[in-house]
Design brief:
single chain, mainly beta, Porin, 19 strands, 4% helix, disordered N terminus
Length: 415
C-alpha cells in the first residue's frame, strides 16, 4: 500500500520535531553524498572470508568538492560583503544486512574555508540506524543523528542582527527517532513515531534558542482505492527552553492527508492540520495550516512540481512566540540527455510574526517579512557514480532590502 513517509538513510529525524522554521530545517538537512534507500538494499550479504572482506563488502566511500561564490554572506542591505568558499566533502557508510535486520552508521565531514574573511571550520554529520523488517505485518525503523555545524546566520535575517559580522556560530543537534509500521489489514496501516531532539547553540548571543523538543505521532494509512491513499492522525509536541522558560509550550495537532495519483503522470498531495498550542505565559492559539503539492510529468523529459504551504510555526530565535509562514513555489526538471539534467525554480515566502513578546511581557505589533528567490541548476553525470553540478540562486528581501547571488560549482562521486 502507498505510504505517507519515505524510508532512507536520512530517516525522518526532523531537527525541530514539533515545527522547525523552514530556513533552519533546510540548513540542517544536507544532501547525502551517497543516497541510499533502505527498501532497495539487499537483505542477505555474502559470508566474508575474513574480517577485512567483511568491512570491505559493507563499506561505501564518497568524496566531493564545492567552490562557492556568495555576493552577500551576511544578508546586509548596505555594504554587502562577498566571499569565496571552498568545501571538501567526505563520507563513509557501513551497512550490514542480516536477513530481516539491517543496521549501519554514516559519517560525513565537510571542511570549508571563507577566503576573504579568513575563516575555517569543519562540519560533522553522524547517523546510526537500525531497521527490522521480518516480512510480516510490521516494520521497525530507529535511528540517531548528530550534526555539528558552523553557521554565519541562524534563521530569518531580521532576527539575527546581533549575530552579523561575528564569525562562525557553532550549533550542535542531537536527534533520536523510533518509528513502526503495523499492517492492520490489506488496506490499513498503523504508524506510531517518537522523536526527541536537543539543539545546542553555542554562540554567546544565541537568542535563547537552546531547546529540547519531544514529538509523538500516531498515524493511520488507508487505501481508499489502488490510486488513492488517505492518512490521518494525532501529534503531540512539547518544547522546553532551558534559558527562557517563558517560551516553553506544548501543542496538540490533528492531521489529515491524501495522496492521489490522478493519472499515470500526475500526483496530487494534500495535508491539512489543526493545532492547539499553549505557552507557559498562558497564551493560547488555535491554528489551521495546510500544504498542497502537484507533480506532473510533462512528456518523457520534463517534470513540474507546484507547492503551496500556509502554517503557523513556533519561533525559536526571536522574542516572539510564533509566526505565520506562507510559501508558494514552483520547480521544473528537464532531461537534456540521459547523462545531463537542468532545473529551474521560483519561490516566495511571507512571514508574519505575532503573539506576546516574551521580553516585553506584553503584546507587540506584528511585523511582516517578505522574501522571494529564483534558482537554476545543471547536473552532469560524468561517471557511473559521479557527477558535476552547477547551481545558481538569487534571493531578495523586501523587508531588509538585501539582494544575494549564490553560485556553486561542485563535484561528487562514490569511490
Amino acid at each position: 500500500m502507498e505510504k505517507n513517509f519515505v524510508k532512507g538513510i536520512g530517516l525522518a529525524l526532523a531537527l525541530a520535531g514539533a515545527g522547525c522554521p523552514p530556513s533552519e530545517a533546510h540548513a540542517a538537512e544536507r544532501q547525502s553524498l551517497i543516497p541510499i534507500e533502505i527498501d532497495e538494499l539487499p537483505r542477505v550479504a555474502e559470508r566474508p572470508v575474513n574480517l577485512f572482506d567483511f568491512f570491505k563488502e559493507r563499506t561505501r566511500w564518497g568524496v566531493g568538492f564545492d567552490e562557492t561564490f556568495d555576493s552577500n554572506v551576511f544578508l546586509k542591505d548596505n555594504d554587502p560583503q562577498e566571499d569565496y568558499i571552498s568545501t571538501l566533502e567526505g563520507q563513509v557508510i557501513f551497512l550490514d544486512p542480516r536477513g530481516s535486520v539491517l543496521y549501519g552508521i554514516s559519517h560525513e565531514i565537510n571542511a570549508f574555508r571563507y577566503h576573504r574573511k579568513d575563516l575555517n571550520a569543519i562540519d560533522h554529520d553522524f547517523r546510526a540506524f537500525f531497521d527490522l523488517d521480518p516480512g510480516g505485518r510490521f516494520q521497525l525503523l530507529s535511528g540517531y543523528k548528530l550534526i555539528a555545524s558552523n553557521q554565519l546566520l541562524l534563521g530569518p535575517e531580521e532576527i539575527d542582527i546581533l549575530r552579523q559580522n561575528s564569525g562562525f556560530q557553532r550549533v550542535v543537534d542531537h536527534a533520536w527517532e523510533a518509528r513502526m509500521e503495523y499492517a492492520l489489514n490489506e488496506t490499513n496501516a498503523l504508524i506510531p513515531q517518537l522523536v526527541y531532539t536537543l539543539h545546542d547553540d553555542q554562540a554567546v548571543n544565541d537568542g535563547d534558542s537552546d531547546r529540547r523538543i519531544l514529538t509523538a505521532i500516531l498515524d493511520i494509512d488507508h487505501d481508499l482505492r489502488p490510486n488513492w491513499t488517505l492518512f490521518g492522525g494525532y501529534e503531540f509536541g512539547e518544547g522546553v527552553f532551558p534559558t527562557n522558560k517563558l517560551k516553553n509550550s506544548e501543542g496538540h495537532t490533528m492531521r489529515l492527508g491524501s495522496h492521489y495519483e490522478v493519472t499515470d503522470v500526475t500526483d496530487l498531495d494534500l495535508v491539512l492540520k489543526f493545532t492547539h498550542r499553549r505557552w507557559r505565559t498562558d497564551q493560547q492559539s488555535n491554528d489551521f495550516g495546510y500544504q498542497a503539492t502537484w507533480k506532473h510529468q510533462l512528456g518523457s523529459r520534463t517534470q513540474v512540481d507546484l507547492r503551496y504551504t500556509d502554517e503557523r510555526i513556533p519561533s525559536y530565535t526571536s522574542t516572539r512566540l510564533q509566526f505565520r509562514s506562507t510559501r508558494p513555489s514552483i520547480g521544473v526538471l528537464y532531461e537534456l540527455t540521459p547523462l545531463m539534467k537542468v532545473s529551474a525554480g521560483a519561490n516566495y515566502e511571507k512571514q508574519r510574526s505575532g503573539g506576546k513578546d516574551v521580553l516585553l511581557g506584553s503584546a507587540a505589533s506584528s511585523t511582516v517579512s517578505r522574501r522571494y528567490g529564483l534558482n537554476a541548476g545543471l547536473i552532469w553525470q560524468i561517471r557511473e557514480k559521479g557527477h558535476v553540478t552547477l547551481d545558481y540562486s538569487f534571493s531578495r528581501s523586501k523587508s531588509s532590502d538585501y539582494t544575494r547571488h549564490l553560485w556553486v560549482l561542485g563535484f561528487e562521486t562514490e569511490l
